[in-house]
Design brief:
The protein has 1 helix and 12 strands, in the order βββββαβββββββ. The protein is mostly beta strands and 189 residues long. The strands form 4 sheets. Strands 4, 5, 10, 11 and 12 form a 5-stranded antiparallel beta sheet that branches. A 3-stranded antiparallel beta sheet has the order 1-2-7, with no helix packed on it. Strands 3-6 form a two-stranded antiparallel sheet. Strand 8 and strand 9 form a beta hairpin. The longest helix is centred in the middle third of the chain and has 6 residues.
């Protein structure tokens, strides 16, 4: 079993409000049970800062030889758009089992995303928690952000600042002892 992503009319650069689409192509050498095939568009920013550790009081302002530098890293999801390409909504409503047997061969599943103008990290949805039949709103993340224009792909400063976008496809298999198959494509935005 293998899965790959093939983009339609692949461009060297995508920008806000562009459509990016293609096919998730699943190749099977034998009959396989599948629960779902998910494709998602993700954007991620990573930043890394290096510095000297703070000097504790009474240390005399001198550093010892070989003392490690402090490295602070932050990873932030700036875009997340998932879609299930298999089973289709019609197939899900016609069948309740949740496991589908696909025959050997090549299977293609189309997808399309519209790149948003703004990031999606500001889309805050507080979680609802059910405690003893009483539904309560759980406190949300303190890391809420304002909406800003989606930043371009960036790979600079010796990996101190990185912004990447991915299209990922995952074949979800129903048996817990069988791993899910994954692939990714990294378009430039």
């Amino acid at each position: 079993m293998s899965i790959r992503i093939q983009l339609n009319n692949a461009q060297s650069l995508y920008t806000n409000l562009d459509f990016i689409g293609g096919k998730a192509i699943l190749s099977l050498t034998r009959e396989e049970d599948i629960s779902a095939i998910n494709v998602k568009l993700e954007g991620e920013s990573k930043s890394r800062l290096e510095g000297e550790p703070p000097i504790p009081y009474g240390y005399g302002g001198m550093r010892r030889r070989g003392e490690a530098t402090v490295v602070e890293t932050e990873v932030h999801k700036i875009l997340y758009k998932p879609v299930t390409v298999f089973p289709t909504a019609n197939l899900q409503s016609a069948r309740r089992a949740g496991v589908y047997t696909l025959q050997p061969g090549q299977h293609e599943f189309a997808f399309e995303f519209k790149l948003p103008f703004n990031n999606t990290c500001a889309d805050y949805q507080p979680a609802l928690v059910n405690i003893g039949g009483l539904q309560m709103q759980a406190p949300g993340s303190r890391d809420r952000h304002v909406k800003k224009t989606l930043p371009p792909t960036l790979h600079a400063f010796q990996d101190h600042a990185v912004i990447r976008y991915y299209i990922k496809a995952t074949v979800v298999r129903p048996a817990f002892y069988k791993e899910n198959f994954r692939t990714a494509s990294a378009p430039t935005m």
